[in-house]
Write a structure and sequence with these properties.
By secondary structure, the protein is mainly α. Helix 6 packs antiparallel against helix 7 and helix 7 runs antiparallel to helix 8. The chain is built from 17 helices and three strands. Strand 1 and strand 2 form a beta hairpin. The longest helix is centred in the last third of the chain and has 33 residues. It is an enzyme of class 2 (transferase).
């Protein structure tokens, strides 16, 4: 046991970090390995790979992901801002380079190969973007004269433009949701609400008429008879076949017929083999992490920490909800991983970075450290 009286860096971290949230994240990582063992073998065999190829790769990425999660949770808010600026700048450069040098898969350029490793830059843009937006809105709360809304809009526009050029509408929608949520939390004016809602509708309409891929997915969702719904139909059927307790490990059939059963549709594999009970446990873990993060974020005195932790929690929760909703055919299909469970190195490392920042921002700190002041001085407005 670590004593509270110890003042070592590890002891200070251990008694200030949210250990329950840390445990829930560890449970999701463990669940991801177990579900990959169940879901990935048929996919690997079809591709002529070792049956445990995807499991081994996931464990390979999981080791640095845990290091990133724990290392990031040690950072101060000031260090988080500085690191996010570096990560965002590098990711934006890679995002632009992907449009030219990236590998085209299914009509989109989202991946770039660096030193023999496939990287999806958009995954790393997301958490860094949330931090920078939170910093802008936090500064606006402390300095109303600062034109943070304009800067936030320009930053949002630059990210969305690059994502739409790939195109990647799933990530675009996710970033737009988080940006809008933080904008709302910062106290936007009514005129901004109408303007943003109108812009969102215009953007959706333009995407529908200008991009055939988007139109086909929306049409299939509204009218299944208008196109091929093979993957969605089988994913939904797997929940019926699995029942409450599932058919048992290795007894499922959906993983043998879906090409993305180890990634986008791993939740359907979990439902068929382990049952709805396990799915509800997974949903409960996601809900616990999001609610826990939002609750602790609300206690933060520093506006930046409050907005940043909330934004990252919303990002995590929204991505989880989108993936599970697609598996249940509640929303149109989108290529988005289930956090810490689906296969994917870029996704795993990015999520570890984002949730490590959540753990760091929600640690119990003195006010002076929250505000990033030297000498431990608390702002006069807070001390009064």
């Amino acid at each position: 046991m670590v004593s509270r009286a110890q003042r070592t860096p590890f002891a200070v971290w251990w008694w200030t970090v949210d250990r329950l949230m840390l445990g829930a994240l560890g449970a999701l990582m463990l669940a991801g390995i177990i579900l990959l063992l169940a879901a990935s073998s048929p996919v690997a065999t079809k591709l002529g790979l070792d049956p445990f190829h995807f499991v081994n790769r996931q464990i390979f990425y999981l080791i640095p992901a845990i290091a990133i999660l724990l290392g990031t949770s040690l950072l101060s808010p000031r260090q988080i801002r500085r690191l996010a600026l570096v990560v965002f700048a590098i990711s934006m450069v890679l995002l632009a380079a992907t449009l030219v040098f990236g590998t085209e898969i299914k009509g989109a350029r989202r991946w770039i190969v660096l030193l023999g490793v496939n990287i999806q830059p958009s995954e790393f843009v997301k958490p860094a973007f949330v931090i920078l937006i939170a910093w802008l809105f936090g500064e606006s709360a402390r300095k109303p004269e600062m034109p943070a809304n304009i800067f936030a809009l320009l930053l949002f526009g630059s990210v969305v433009t690059l994502l739409m050029m790939q195109p990647d509408f799933g990530q675009t929608m996710l970033i737009a949701m988080v940006w809008g949520a933080l904008f709302f939390m910062s106290g936007m004016r009514v005129i901004w609400v109408g303007g943003l809602a109108g812009a969102a509708l215009l953007g959706l309409g333009a995407a529908y008429y200008a991009v055939p891929h988007v139109a086909r997915r929306l049409n299939r969702f509204m009218d299944p008879s208008s196109g091929d719904t093979f993957q969605i139909d089988n994913a939904v059927e797997s929940f019926v076949r699995g029942g409450w307790l599932g058919q048992g490990p290795g007894e499922g059939t959906v993983k043998r017929i879906l090409p993305d059963s180890h990634a986008d549709f791993i939740f359907a594999v979990a439902a068929e083999e382990f049952g709805i009970v396990l799915c509800l446990i997974v949903v409960g873990l996601f809900a616990f992490i999001v609610i826990r993060a939002l609750t602790r974020a609300l206690r933060a005195e520093d506006p930046f920490s409050r907005y940043a932790a909330s934004g990252l929690a919303i990002l995590f929760g929204a991505q989880s909800a989108i993936n599970m909703s697609v598996n249940l055919h509640l929303i149109p299909a989108k290529g988005m991983t289930l956090p810490f469970i689906s296969y994917g190195g870029s996704s795993l490392l990015s999520l570890a970075y984002g949730m490590g920042m959540v753990l760091a921002l929600t640690r119990e700190r003195p006010q002076a450290e929250q505000f990033g002041r030297r000498g431990g001085a608390v702002p006069a407005a807070r001390a009064a």
